[in-house]
Amino acid sequence: MGKIKDIRAAVEDELSFDPLVDAADITVRNMGGDVALTGTVPSYPQYLEAAAAARRVARVTSVHNHLEVVLPPSGCTVTLTGHVRNWAEHDAVVAAAWMANGVSDVRDELSVTG
Q: CA-CA-CA-CA torsion for 64, 66, 67, 71, nearest 10 degrees?
């Protein structure tokens, strides 16, 4: 039972760590290494990246992506806050924010700590 929880927790951590995925509405289920992702994401690139992130986790044998893309209303402003380790991370986060469907403005309040 511990390994099953470990895989689920590891996938949840990977999704949370990935700057290209908003994991707030993603649920992870693990069935002996077969991982199912359910819930919603705000763009198709995030749909793809969530599955890719789950595949990166050790002991995941397959990923069943049942996520639904729910587009946000147009004209959204995204505010980026927090810390990133380097400028490459910073640029990836900003680019991901601009890629999201419906985003018309990105406010960059990120701090580079490295």
A: 140
Nearest residue to 37 via CA among 17, 23, 57: 23
Q: What is the pLDDT of residue 25?
A: 96
What DSSP string describes the chain? -HHHHHHHHHHHHHHHH-TT--GGGEEEEEETTEEEEEEEESSHHHHHHHHHHHHTSTT--EEEEEEEE-PPPSSEEEEEEEEESSHHHHHHHHHHHHHSTTEEEEEEEEEE--
Q: Where are the domains of the chain?
A: 2-69, 76-112
Topology of domain 2-69, per CATH?
A: Histidine-containing Protein; Chain: A; (3.30.1340)
- What does the pLDDT look like over 32-62, one tens digit per residue? 999 999 999 988 889 999 999 999 999 999 9
pLDDT, position 105: 86
